[in-house]
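Rotation project, supervised by the postdoc (A.L.). Task for the rotation student: set up a whole-complex structure prediction and record inputs and outputs verbatim in this book. Inputs entered:
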Amino acid sequence: MSTESKRLAVTAELPRLRRYAIALMRDRVEADDLVHDVVVRALDKLHLWREGTNMRTWLFTIMHNLHANEMRRRSRALDSVPLDAAPPRTEPAGQEAAVEWSELSNAMTGLSVLHRQVLLLVGLEGMTYAEAAGVLEVPVGTVMSRLSRAREELRHRIDEGAQGSTIRRIK
Amino acid sequence: MGDDRVTDSELNALVDDELDPARQAEIEAWLADNPEAAQRVARYRSQNAGLHALYDDILNEELPARTAALLDVRRAGVPAWAAMAAAITLFVVGAAGGWLVRGEGVSDTGTQLVAAATTSPIDAPPVVIPPIDTQVLMQRASMAHVVSHQDELRSPAAGGPAAMADYIADRMGKQIRVPSLDSFGYNMVGGRVLPDTDGPAAQFVFADENGHKVSLYVRSEQANGVDITYALADDLSMFYWNDSDRSYALVTRIDDDTGREALLSAAKAVHRQLSQ
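Outputs recorded:
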C-alpha cells in the first residue's frame, strides 16, 4: 500500500477518533489537541503500520497511549488524582443533544475514565472485546468485567438522575 | 437447555454480539422467563443507542483545519472532479426531493466536501474521504422499502433460505448470504433484485405478526469502511453500514427510541450474519 493510501486510511478514521476523544474527554479543545497529536504520531510511525492489520485499532491504540500519558502527567502534577477518578469538568456532549438523552450524558460524566473507555469503545465504536482489549492493552477478561460494572453503574446513575429530576419537578 | 446459569458477562456479551449462536439462542429463551434480566439487557441496549444519539453528530463535523492540513490529502492527488461529482450528486439528490439527513451519525461526505470547498482558506485544504454514497443509498433503500409489495417479491416458501440465496445470486451475479431476523420476531416475506447504478441490488423484506415491515437493501459499492450508523430519511429510520464492496441499509418506520434500539440490535445481527 502506498504512503498516500495509508494517509487516506488514516484520514478516513479521524471522524471516529474525534467522536471517541470528545465523548471520553468531554472537552472539545482537549479532544482536538489529542486527535492532532495522534495524527502527528501516526504519520511519524506510518512505516510501522503493517498492511492487513486494522488501521482503526492501531490509531485508537496510539490515542489511548497518548491519553494515558497525559493523564499520568496531570496526575503527577496534581499529586493526588488517580487514573480512575471521576472527571472534574463537564461539558454538554453536543449542542443538539436530545433532551431525552441528557440523563445519560450526565450519568456518563460521573463515571471513571476506565469505565467510560470500555463503554465507548464497545458501545459506541462497536469494537469487539478483543479489539477493545488490544486498544486498552489489558486482557479481554478485564474489558468484560469493566464493561459489566460500567453498565450497571451507568444504569443506577441514570435512575438516580431521573429520580432527582422528578423530585425537582415536584418541588 | 443446558446450563441455566447466565452470568453478568453473558448478558453483556449478548448485547455486544459476542456469544456463539447456540448460547445466544439459549440466553434469549432464558430471558423470556427472567424479566429482570431482560430489562437489564434492554437498558444496556438503550445505553448504546443513547451514546450514538449523543455523539454521532460529531462524525459529520469538519476536522480542525490544522489537523486536516497535516494530511493534506487533496493536494496529494485526489482529482478535483471527485469533489465536483460529489457536489453535483448532492445537488441533484437535494433537488429531487425530500431526503433529509438528520445528523445522527451520517458520514455525509458530499456535504463535507461542499462545505469545505466553500469555507476553507487556501492553506487549509479540505480532507477528502473516499465516499460511501450515503444519499444514494438512503434514497434507494427508502424507495425500495416503500414500494415492496408482497406480490413483487419472491417468496421464501419455495425452498427456504438456500433457494432464496440461489435466486438472488443468479440475478445479482454474486453470492450473498440471506439474513434472518427470526429472533427479533420478523419473518422473511420475500426477496428481490432491483436495478441500481453500480449493478443489481438485493432487497430482503421481513414482517412481524402485525405486518410491520423491515427491509434490508444491499447495493454494490466500493467504499470506505462505515460502521453501523443511524439516519433518518423522511419518516423512515435506517441503520446503514458497508464492507469492502457492498453497502447495506436496514430500513423501517419507527416513531420512538425503543424502536430505534430494536432496529439497531437487528442491524447488528444482520451485520454479524453477513460478515461471518
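Student's summary: Chain A touches chain B through 47 residues (CB under 8 Å).
Supervisor addendum: The radius of gyration of chain A is 17 Å.
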